[in-house]
Specification:
The chain has about 450 residues and is mostly helical. It has 19 helices and no strands. Helices cover about 80% and strands about 0% of the residues. The model has no long low-confidence stretch (mean pLDDT about 85).
């Protein structure tokens, strides 16, 4: 229910009387171009994970649906609808609200760049004490272990791709070596700063993702993909209220615990990290630009990405030779590679995916290192290089330790516990930001 409240609240803010308030003041200009801004926020949000799960998740819902008969055309339609729900508007609204709140209190109210200050209208200077420290420490822990877990899972997919291409063994030793190599690359990137390393790599990753989508659209069942994208997007928008409020009350199953509730908790757990990063790169944007840019654009890309790869997999399963469902159920990390094997130039396309995955890996690590650096330095945007190096290396060490020790899944589940307090924080934040916006606008009109 909370995710629906946040989505509605974001829509309200985007078209309210506050929509033209500019983050940083009336004369502040955006620090980054729209293309660079969207690339960075998308890559920090879900780029790495979405790339590898765009085939696996629709196929899993297709073969094991929460309702209806598995393996049918209806199951395929429902699978896309559910996947859109998990990766679409609701999740990005969580990021948008967190990013907007942090950016407003930093750039318009003159407070440090940090998560604790989103409650300033309610708690005031008490946030300078233990309460504020607790919020920031929780955010650092959630960011560090959430990123390390996701990067550890991502490296398993990269290892799987190398196994497909070159017969590289799939084991923890190889994965730890890969994490070490990629962490060195991420460290070099984060040292170069936000304007050079992170921005450049985000653009490269976005271009590679677009090229991959165009390739599948060209060599795959093009007309089927286009038609299904239009139809499934319409179904998603029409049933948004129904699917967004479905609670599985009339069935004796726990499907939602493993999927939708898990996803919402994961979005909330990542909100401090992604929200603060969005705030940092959104100075100069209006409230309307930030909300629509963060909610609409990435949701559209996510839907398009899932539709292209998911529908291609469905076409193979329903009208072709099949085999993808079996591959996904056997090893989820091979889903995308199994799909690509059905089309020409499979060696090069899989190699392309592995390279893109590495770049997404590096950009996610960079973004996380910068966010932790901001929080631990008290909100300072310019910090010593050695601090950035320390946090970048720390993420790699934690990820490697989890992979080697076999604790990824346990920590993935445990890190979601932070989702509940963040959810409560964000519901309170709705009142806090409205109160602050009203006062800010009243003061602005008085000073005219």
């Amino acid at each position: 229910m909370a995710v629906n409240i946040i989505l509605v609240f974001c829509i309200y803010l985007a078209f309210s009387r506050f929509k033209n308030i500019r983050l940083g003041g009336p004369d502040c200009k955006p620090e980054f171009s729209t293309w660079a801004w969207l690339s960075m926020l998308f890559n920090a949000g879900i780029g790495l994970v979405l790339m590898f799960y765009s085939v696996a998740e629709p196929i899993l819902h297709f073969s094991n649906p929460p309702y209806g008969q598995a393996g049918t055309t209806v199951a395929a339609e429902n699978a896309l609808n559910i996947s859109y729900l998990h990766w679409g508007l609701h999740g990005w609204a969580i990021y948008a609200l967190m990013g907007l709140s942090i950016a407003f209190f930093c750039y318009n109210k003159g407070l440090p760049l940090g998560i604790r200050w989103v409650l300033y209208p309610l708690l005031g200077d008490r946030l300078k004490g233990p309460i504020g420290h607790f919020i920031d420490v929780t955010a650092v822990v959630a960011t560090m272990f959430g990123l390390a877990t996701t990067l550890g899972l991502g490296i398993q997919h990269i290892n799987s791709g190398l196994n497909y291409l070159f017969g590289v063994a799939e084991n923890t030793n190889v994965q730890v070596v890969l994490i070490a190599i990629i962490t060195v690359c991420a460290t070099a990137s984060v040292v170069s700063g936000l304007h050079n390393g992170v921005k450049t790599l985000s653009k490269v990753a976005s271009i590679m993702a677009i090229l991959l989508m165009v390739f599948i659209l060209a060599v795959g069942p093009t007309l089927f993909i286009v038609g299904s994208t239009i139809q499934s997007t319409g179904n998603y928008l029409q049933s948004l209220i129904g699917t967004g409020t479905w609670m599985e009350l009339y069935s004796d199953t726990n499907w939602m615990d493993n999927w939708t509730i898990f996803y919402w908790a994961w979005w909330f757990a990542w909100a401090p990290f992604v929200g603060l990063f969005i705030a940092r790169i959104s100075k100069g944007r209006t409230i309307k630009e930030l909300i629509l840019g963060v909610v609409i654009a990435p949701s559209a890309v996510s839907i398009l990405w899932i539709s292209i790869f998911g529908n291609t997999a469905f076409h193979i399963e329903l009208f072709g030779q099949g085999g993808i469902t079996e591959a996904v159920n056997e090893n989820i990390t091979t889903a995308l590679f199994t799909l690509l094997e059905h089309f020409p130039l499979s060696f090069f396309s899989i190699l392309f995916v592995v390279i893109a995955g590495v770049i997404f890996f590096v950009t996610s690590s960079d973004s996380g290192s910068l966010v932790i650096d901001f929080i631990t330095s008290g909100g300072r945007e310019k910090t010593d290089v050695w601090l950035r190096i320390f946090w970048a290396l720390s993420e790699g060490i934690v990820a490697a330790t989890l992979v080697f020790g076999g604790g990824l899944i346990a920590l993935q589940t445990g890190s979601l516990v932070t989702g509940l307090p963040v959810c409560i924080l964000m519901l309170i934040m709705c009142y806090s930001i409205i109160k602050a916006l009203r006062k800010y606008q009243a003061d602005t009109e008085t000073n005219k």
